[in-house]
TrEMBL record:
GO biological process, one term: methylation
Name assigned to this protein: Release factor glutamine methyltransferase
Species the sequence originates in: Paracoccus caeni
Keywords from the named record: Methyltransferase, S-adenosyl-L-methionine, Transferase
Enzyme Commission number, as recorded: 2.1.1.297
Catalytic activity: L-glutaminyl-[peptide chain release factor] + S-adenosyl-L-methionine = N(5)-methyl-L-glutaminyl-[peptide chain release factor] + S-adenosyl-L-homocysteine + H(+)
């Protein structure tokens, strides 16, 4: 089968399965199979090997079952780097780059990433600020293994520790960042199947109102920050006022930062020295 024939057939199969963005997803899977960037497919046409065809149709069948493309191909490009993604981690999303950009506009030399997952936030920050130090924590040992692999591949030095939020974290940092589970339990059923069925539930929801992690992070921030330190947390689009309120009660000056679509995305909390 020729490459262009495979593209057409793969797209048709995903369309038949009701997958939004079928052509885009088919190209991402095919490109990963043959080891090129998706944009190059438009100028290529050659016979696929039997092994490549098998891997393509296996990937397309998985996508037809709503498995995220990042899990199928094994990676996601985020900020300026490529990160390994597995079912043990959230798929890093472009909206989270808002937090990275906000962090890089602040003065800091040390950073704590609570619930690091793939390490996408932490490693992007450390790579962009040579000489800085960082620690990523997660309650999932499997997620920490993925983060360590990403750090090795990026040649970024970072510490990783198994911890439940601030537990076992006695150190102080200039900056604390987190993209915690913020989906309320009663909202889980409404999530797209790509997320609900395939991403780790504990990284999506706190099993309650979606605000539990922010309460913990805000309450413990002053004990983990150096004087004049900051906290940046990703939020759901309707949570800005509640989350900012938690940090204000802890003594911080707060600001809500929108993403590129204009939705509330990040709360910045600054603590006076």
């Amino acid at each position: 089968m020729k490459l262009n024939e495979a593209r057409t057939e793969a797209t048709a199969r995903l369309l038949a399965a009701g997958i939004d963005g079928a052509a885009r997803d088919a190209d991402r899977i095919l490109a990963a199979v043959i080891g090129v960037e998706p944009g190059r497919l438009r100028v290529m046409d050659h016979d696929l090997t039997p092994d490549q065809q098998d891997r393509l149709w296996t990937g397309i069948a998985a996508r037809a079952q709503h498995q995220p493309v990042a899990q199928i191909v094994g990676f996601r490009d985020f900020y300026a780097h490529r990160f390994i993604v597995t079912r043990d981690t959230l798929d890093p999303r472009p909206d989270t780059e808002t937090l990275v950009e906000a962090a890089l506009a602040l003065p800091w030399n040390s950073v704590l990433d609570l619930g690091t997952g793939t390490g996408a936030i932490l490693l992007s920050l450390l790579a962009a600020r040579p000489g800085s130090q960082g620690l990523g924590t997660d309650i999932s040992p499997a997620a920490l293994d993925v983060a360590r692999r990403n750090a090795h591949l990026m040649k970024v030095t970072a510490g990783f520790r198994h911890a439940d939020w601030y537990d076992a974290i006695p150190e102080r940092f200039d900056l604390i960042v987190s993209n915690p589970p913020y989906i309320a339990l009663d909202e889980m059923a409404g999530l797209a199947p790509d997320v609900r069925l395939w991403e780790p539930e504990t990284a999506l929801t706190d099993g309650g109102d979606g605000l539990a992690a922010y309460r913990v992070i805000a309450a413990g921030a002053t004990d983990r920050l150096n004087p004049g330190g900051h906290v940046l947390v990703e939020i759901g689009p309707s949570q800005g006022q509640d989350v900012a309120g938690f940090f204000a009660q802890a003594g911080a000056e707060t600001r809500i930062i929108p993403d590129l679509d204009g939705r509330d995305r990040v709360v910045l909390a600054g603590f006076r020295g």
